[in-house]
Amino acid sequence: MQFKAFLLLTATATMAAVNEPCVGSGGRAGVCISTTNCASAGGVSISGACPSDASNIKCCTKASCANGSAGNCRWSSDCAGTSVANKCPGPSQMKCCSSSASGFGGYSAPAFPAVGACKSVAVEGAKKVVAAWKGRVRQIYCTRDCACPGTSDHCCGKAIDFMCSDGGGVPTSSGRQIAEWVMNNRGTLNLKYVIWGQRIWNPSVDGVKAWTSWRAMEDRGDITQNHWDHVHVSFK
User: Fold this and answer.
1) Same domain, 82 and 168
2) In angstroms, rounded to a whole number, what is the distance separating the alpha carbons of residues 89 and 60?
3) Is residue 89 reached through a cis peptide bond, with omega within 30 degrees of 0 on the bond before it?
4) Residue 127 falls within a domain, yes or no?
5) Number of folded domains in the chain?
6) Residue in 194, 193, 158 with CA at minimum distance from that of residue 176
7) Whose CA is closest to 20, among 215, 147, 197?
8) Tell me, what's the pLDDT at 43?
9) pLDDT tens across 42-54, in order?
10) C-alpha dist (Å) from residue 107 to 80, 99, 102
11) What is the DSSP pairing of strand 159-163 with strand 199-201?
């Protein structure tokens, strides 16, 4: 599986594509949609969480929906119970979950690449991340079919994509905790930079801060390229 995680170390203006995740009211999982669509689905919109989109595109959440006493709207990959469609604002993957638990992960241990084309710093870093977040990483990708140095650290075997949702192109909120852990363990990991949820953090230019304050990246057009289904980590 190939990913277009091009190297980007500088801040850019555009953020939060329509129908993609955001952090909404009360810290709940939200989706960037029009205020009209949000209201018609019974949701609540907040400003400032979908920057650089049109003024009528805001972060929409729905705290209660009809799927048992704990019914709430969230990305289906993150539901610890059963999910019911057509009860929540946003795209089809935003569903009504029967559980209030996070439901992150639950995956079998992923296979690690061999040291070779994938460099030892990346393999060892991948093992440390997976050990810290057991069950949260579904699959690991390292190298890409491109000449080094190329346009990505994947070309040189010095980057890992930690897939943390139920499938490629499936949005999740799970990666934030992993990405912030990577930031906080930058020295042990020999970190170059980390990307999650259309934001980037580089230890050479950024101070330690919550993911919501990381530098914004441009909209690359889909869930995977905007890093909503995996955490990208580049190593030195």
Assistant:
1) no
2) 7
3) no
4) yes
5) 2
6) 194
7) 197
8) 97
9) 999 999 898 767 8
10) 13, 18, 14
11) unpaired
Residues 142 and 175 in one domain: yes
Distance CA 5, CA 184 (A): 22
Give the integer Cα–Cα distance in Å for 149 and 163. 23
- Residue 109 is inside which H or E element, if any? none
CB 5 within 8 A of CB 227: yes
For 61-86, what is the mean pLDDT? 97
Domain range for 190 is: 120-235
- Beta-carbon contacts of 184 under 8 Å, excluding residues fewer than 6 positions away, are 208
Question: DSSP string covering 3-62, please?
Answer: -------S--S----TTSEEE-GGG-EEEEEEHHHHHHTT-EEESSSSTTS-TTEEEEE-
Q: Same domain for 93 and 127?
A: no
- Pair 134, 45 in one domain: no
With residues binned 3-state (H G I as helix, E B as strand, rest as coil), the percentages for the chain, rounded to 5, are 20, 25, 60
Q: Which two tokens stand for residue 97?
A: 């979950």
DSSP class of residue 118 equals B
- Name 143's Cβ contacts closer than 8 Å, sequence gap at least 6: 113, 117, 118, 154, 155, 157
* Cβ atoms of 198 and 15 closer than 8 Å: yes
Q: Within a 10 A sphere around the Cβ of 175, how many other Cβ atoms?
A: 30
pLDDT for 189-214, tens place per residue? 999 999 999 999 999 999 999 999 99
Please tell me whether residue 184 adopts helix, strand or coil conformation.
Answer: helix
Which is more confidently placed, 72 or 1?
72
